[in-house]
Automatic annotation (TrEMBL):
This is Diamine acetyltransferase 2 isoform X2. Keywords: Acyltransferase, Transferase. It comes from Papilio xuthus. Residues 10-161 form the N-acetyltransferase domain. SUPFAM superfamilies: Acyl-CoA N-acyltransferases (Nat) (SSF55729). InterPro entries: Acyl_CoA_acyltransferase, Diverse_Substrate_AcTransf, GNAT_dom.
């Protein structure tokens, strides 16, 4: 494994519109890994619209390796949450480092950047979801994340069709 530190600069920065093409590609890579390719329906144009048009629906950090060329090697996508118990929070939707760039501490650096973002926004917590079989669970637990799946809380979701049906009740 080449020593990136001696030949390149690694920068974590806020994503720009132009980065969304690479972020979209990495979302597709992550969907393959998570066996969720049918769920990954957005494209780069959707990401630009949702992340950069007002109001932005999410924030995104990219990890860029700068050497002879600039390469976007990873990303972290997050959005605001709110708890009536503790106030502001951030939800980490995705943290991904391309396979070629793994095992160099880049995931730790991206995670720390999102944690710093949460602190700078006055957030009381950072939340995330991890598939039960994903070895990344150990990564998050090593950083102090608490697995709530054994607690009394259950996570629910309404997808598009269920959401439309639920919204119909509002019109009755």
């Amino acid at each position: 494994m080449e020593d990136v530190a001696s030949t390149s600069e690694v920068v974590i920065r806020d994503a720009e519109r132009e980065d969304m093409l690479e972020v979209d590609k990495m979302i597709q890579e992550l969907a393959v890994y998570e066996k969720l390719t049918d769920d990954a329906r957005l494209n780069a144009a959707d990401l630009v619209r949702d992340g950069f048009d007002s109001p932005a629906a999410f924030g995104c950090k990219v990890l860029e390796v700068r050497g002879e060329q600039r390469v976007v090697a990873g990303y972290a996508l997050y959005y605001r949450t709110y708890s009536t118990c503790v106030g502001r929070g951030l939800m980490l939707e995705d943290l991904y480092v391309r396979e070629r760039w793994r095992r160099r501490g880049f995931g730790r650096r991206l995670f720390a950047a999102v944690a710093a973002e949460a602190v700078s926004r006055g957030c009381a917590r950072l939340e995330l979801h991890v598939l039960s079989w994903n070895p990344a669970r150990a990564f998050y637990e090593a950083r102090g994340a608490v697995d709530l799946s054994d607690a009394d809380w259950r996570y629910y979701r309404l997808d598009a069709e269920q959401l439309r049906r639920a919204a119909l009740l509002h019109t009755l």
